[in-house]
């Protein structure tokens, strides 16, 4: 899938120290050994335009990409688009629009929001609708080898992966969670008669080989399983070692755990998992059903500069939950104004500032601390006159923070 343009990334002197990030599953710090660094991030299901929760996630992984690049790693980044899935079909039916048109319009909106926020595009942006043949082949292989099995009910045939033969599946890091209950509440079907285990994930819904891609075929009658989709796309585009698998915190279980069991089957090693914090508004996690979505495109329409929105997101560390208020944008607006002044005046110690910012980012992508360091420097240099310092500051903001002042 065509993504969006790469933002301008001026070269910076020197190199960042190696980045360590905290693995959500183990709590331990992980570092990509290089020279390549592979990142897979679970992408959107295109039925809710980019709200601040989405933007926070993709800007967080954009920071990971920037810091990896700055430390000399060659980054390979794949992200999927789940453009064939039940929530999309349901939304299309509720709003009486063609599901493909809905998906395409939402993909376009996401694309323009990412460009506006100066996010570095993935190396490979893969729509499931363009990846059906490899998925179908993989599911057929699983069935042939007895690793997947079919169950037929009133709504036709569904194939499941027999995940519970994997000893690491849903183990220690999920201890204490009622997995069957959580699975049922998040689109799973633990109660379905005929399943060998309640936590076996769907690999294919509908009859394989039916002409499901034909014009006019009813959506929702067939679809690939979401979890095997991410496992297979990541393996095909990144290989068998993935440094970081990422997504929102709401994907830890069931989605990423089920993806992980498919990874085991495919001999894929994932070195670390990063799950970004939840953004809430008016006391609740942003969701269409609660009607409390704050859309990036709407904020920009209201007159907030995209760089103000980006700076507001960077003011929270990637793994923290936070609540959005308009004050977040007001604070970011004041910061942008102050920093713009320094962008012209510059100041002594810009090289030291670059080092400090790099040090904070290398420590689990601590963006709030990096921003505070810039605040202090900007305040101290408000009346300086240092062209060289000004240029270095401006380049650092662009390349390391994605802020085009
Ligand atoms: Zn995924």
Automatic annotation (TrEMBL):
tRNA synthetases class I catalytic domain segment(s): 36-332
Listed Pfam families: tRNA-synt_1e
UniProt superkingdom: Bacteria
UniProt keyword list: ATP-binding, Ligase, Nucleotide-binding
Keyword ATP-binding appears in the UniProt entry: yes
Gene3D superfamilies in alphabetical order: Anticodon-binding domain of a subclass of class I aminoacyl-tRNA synthetases, HUPs
Subunit structure: Monomer.
The name this protein goes by in its record: tRNA synthetases class I catalytic domain-containing protein
Species for this entry: Flaviflexus equikiangi
